[in-house]
Specification:
The strands form four sheets. The protein has an eight-stranded antiparallel beta sheet with strand order 11-10-9-6-5-4-3-18, with helices on one face. A six-stranded antiparallel beta sheet has the order 12-1-2-15-16-17, covered by helices on one side. Strands 7-8 form a two-stranded parallel ribbon. With 321 residues, it is α+β, with helices and mostly antiparallel strands. The relative contact order is 0.20. Strand 15 and strand 16 form a beta hairpin.
């Protein structure tokens, strides 16, 4: 399970928690403008926008979890079990596999408006990358500095939802998740008003947030991170904004041992990411490394034709004085 958010404080930011019980040795990838991106059923994309993101590279082919292009368009795929559906091949559509979807949109679109047009012709079709890498059950959030949308491919069609809160987690479908915010409309960072008509003692600060969910379920994470993000405040300099972004994601991170998937296997937050979409800087932390590392896509030759791969710095030594 995972969480993705947008954030604005001076610049615009996009990022996510990846919550799984295993790792595919993900790395930060820069795909330059002339990397020849091979498609299964469509013509290869030889010239395109450059992108930076987190991916597993298999035989020089990046399988992206999340990414941002040089124009600031961002996209992430999150688990969507029980609802996700991939279609048979359709000759009348642009057939795109689930593992091609993120790069296909980011290589060819500069904003959400263009992505909306592209989505009208896409058929997300059912073909795995390989036997070792079967299709994942996903839905996606696409965002730029102006707006965000959620894309869900289900048996009854391709659903595209406006996302006014800039937040997405997992099940159930986004329209149900978004409606659930109504149940928490009274939450506030301010102390609650006494409506009982009798003397009461507010024994603690933060009581305006009583009822805010704290468990790790997808609906609870959606409510909690939406509340945290929409009430969050930070200075507008890069250092303050990026640290605040990771604090927001930290409100719904998963600690190892709290979410058992199978006996002895636990889901946890493998990495968290934050991209400054204006500057093309991809920041990340890992479960055992809370230090924020950044990769600037513009420090690489974006007119090249080969991938640039940055291995994650996964462990942070204890600093004892």
């Amino acid at each position: 399970m995972c969480t993705v958010i947008t954030y604005h404080s001076g610049n615009h930011y996009f990022g996510r928690n990846l919550d799984l019980d295993y790792s595919y040795n993900e790395t930060v990838i820069i795909m330059p403008r002339h990397y020849n991106f091979i498609m299964r059923k469509m013509k290869a994309i030889e010239s395109h926008y450059a992108i930076i993101g987190m991916a597993t590279v298999v035989g020089n082919y990046p399988l992206f979890y999340d990414a941002t292009n040089e124009e600031g368009l961002s996209m992430a795929g999150l688990n969507f079990p029980d609802y996700s559906y991939l279609n048979p091949y359709n000759e009348s559509k642009d057939n795109v596999t689930s593992f091609e979807f993120i790069p296909y949109i980011l290589l060819t679109c500069k904003n959400v408006k263009e992505a909306r047009v592209k989505l009208k012709t896409i058929n997300l079709y059912d073909e795995p990358f390989s036997k070792e890498y079967p299709n994942s059950t996903l839905h996606w959030m696409i965002a730029d500095k102006e707006e965000a949308i959620v894309v869900e491919s289900m048996k009854d069609g391709l659903h595209i939802y406006d996302n006014p809160v800039g937040v997405m987690t997992n099940n159930p479908p986004f329209n149900i998740m978004n409606f659930a915010l109504n149940d928490y409309a009274s939450l506030s960072p301010k102390q609650p008003e006494n409506t009982f008509g009798t003397s009461l003692h507010l024994y603690s600060r933060g009581m305006g947030g009583l009822g805010l969910p704290g468990d790790l379920s997808s609906k609870s994470r959606f409510i909690k991170v939406a509340y945290t993000k929409l009430n969050s405040k930070s200075k507008e300099d890069e250092n303050s904004a990026v640290h605040q972004f990771f604090k927001i994601l930290g409100s719904v991170e998963q600690q190892y041992g709290l979410c058992e998937v199978t006996p002895g296997a636990y889901e946890y937050t493998i990495y968290s990411s934050c991209v400054n979409i204006e500057e093309g800087i991809y920041y990340y932390t890992t479960y055992n490394n809370s230090h924020i590392h950044g990769v600037n896509m513009h420090h690489t030759d974006l007119d090249a034709s080969t991938l640039t791969i940055h291995k994650l710095i996964k462990d942070e030594p204890l600093d004892i004085i």
